[in-house]
Design goal:
Layout lengths: L2 H15 L12 H5 L8 E6 L5 H11 L3 E9 L2 H4 L9 E3 L6 E5 L2
Parallel strand pairs: 1-2
Antiparallel strand pairs: 2-4, 3-4
Length: about 110
């Protein structure tokens, strides 16, 4: 995907989230973002939509899962691209077609 298109996605995302004052869009790798938190911070929600290579998805879920509080939710995009490497069960999958979202509730 050309950088210009990625930049337009970023700008659109920021516009859509502007009405939520606590929402933050960080432009960095998932692992870099995860390093800003500690497990005791207990995040309620994280949504992953990054590199879809199996090793990257595995690294993302391993980095973020310990940061989610009990009762919290870890979600991600493009489930069908990453289904074989997400080792969290049970998963709930939403949507039709190729760009489905997966959700794991931490309990």
């Amino acid at each position: 995907v050309p950088q210009e298109r990625l930049d337009s996605f970023y700008e659109e995302t920021c516009k859509r989230l502007a009405r939520f004052p606590l929402a933050r869009v960080w432009r960095m790798t998932s692992e870099e973002a995860a390093s800003y938190f500690k497990p005791q911070d207990g995040l309620d929600f994280a949504y992953l939509d990054g590199d879809h290579r199996p090793e990257a998805v595995r690294a993302d879920t391993e980095a973020w899962f310990p940061l989610i509080a009990y009762g919290g939710v870890l979600c991600g995009h493009d489930y069908d691209d990453v289904a074989d490497v997400i080792d969290l069960r049970p998963l709930t999958v939403y949507g039709d077609g190729k760009a489905r979202t997966w959700m794991y509730e931490v309990d």
